[in-house]
Amino acid sequence: MNVNFRYNRRTNNIFRRLGMPGPAPIPFFGDIFSIIHKGLNKYDMDLIQKYGKVIGLSDGKDPTILVSDPDLLRNVLIKDSHLFINRYVIRGISGPFEHGLLTLQDEEWKNARTIVSPTFSTAKLKSMYSLMDEVSDMYNKRLLEYADKQEIFDVKVLNGQYTLDNIATCLFGVETNSLQNENVILINHLKKFFTTDFVKTSISILIVLISTRLASYLSKKGYSFLPSDAVDYTSCLVNQILSRRRQHLERRNDFIQIMVDHEDEMKGQEQEKTLTKNIHTLNDKEIVGQALVFMVAGYETTSVLMSFFFYVMSTEPIIQEKIYEEIRNEIGDVNYFHENILIMN
């Protein structure tokens, strides 16, 4: 304990020895309590006003530099980005998210990104349009039902269902239809990723910040701030879908199919001995990890943005009518294909 305390104190004081301004950290905890008390954004703004544009912090056991100088940020993010390829990773987290793009580093990250990036190409997105169009039809049907009945409803709940239905069909290749039936097993499990226990999550984060070894040990023993039943169900479902796709029992234009097609392409090139790049395929755990990262990144951001749009349109009827007329003038009564949407500005 004494050795760990000395190591932690020496690590926390590294910026002070370098003459870099910043707050005095608490041993083991760093600045975590101040972040919890003020919130990350407010805390960062207060530090910038007090210490300047380059500040030395301690995030638990890890020294962290807070940069707000535009020229320095430009160098880090653009000019010298090849020297800063890794994201900040909270070590000690296990499970499917440890295989996601947000946590992979160096060559593992580069390999996964090379494989996953084509998913967002124009051609691949266009191929998924029919899947999203089916979900959108059900979404419009629900809106018309509420309008006909003049019934009050929670638009955020409806947008959340719409977003999760799109995620389920475009990532996992599953038609959930939670817009018509809320009691869908997959959707209920996916929702658990966004309704975690605050106390449990806070304790887990503190353990990770204080001791990554303890966090790794507990993770291997099955302790996690993620809902274990949701992780197990989602992983099992993806593995079943992967098995069927690899046996060519079914085919859909979704993320999992893109990963399976990549596997087939690599196998074909290897057999023909034309595989020149050191690019591998993703294993099942890595595929699940990427899918869950996309889900977390896309769910809240999309549903909240849509809800905010609804709010603005309801409070600004003149703007709402103007947008409606512009869409009608550009597209008319034709189906909303990918090309039609691109012509609107």
From TrEMBL:
Names of required cofactors: heme
Keywords carried by this UniProt record: Heme, Iron, Membrane, Metal-binding, Monooxygenase, Oxidoreductase, Transmembrane, Transmembrane helix
InterPro entries in UniProt: Cyt_P450, Cyt_P450_E_grp-II, Cyt_P450_sf, Cytochrome_P450_3A
Sequence intervals crossing the membrane: 198-218, 287-312
Entries under SUPFAM superfamilies matching the protein: Cytochrome P450
Keyword set includes Acetylation: no
One protein family per Pfam: p450
Entry's Gene Ontology molecular function annotations: heme binding; iron ion binding; oxidoreductase activity, acting on paired donors, with incorporation or reduction of molecular oxygen; steroid hydroxylase activity
Similarity remark: Belongs to the cytochrome P450 family.
Name used for this protein in its record: Cytochrome P450
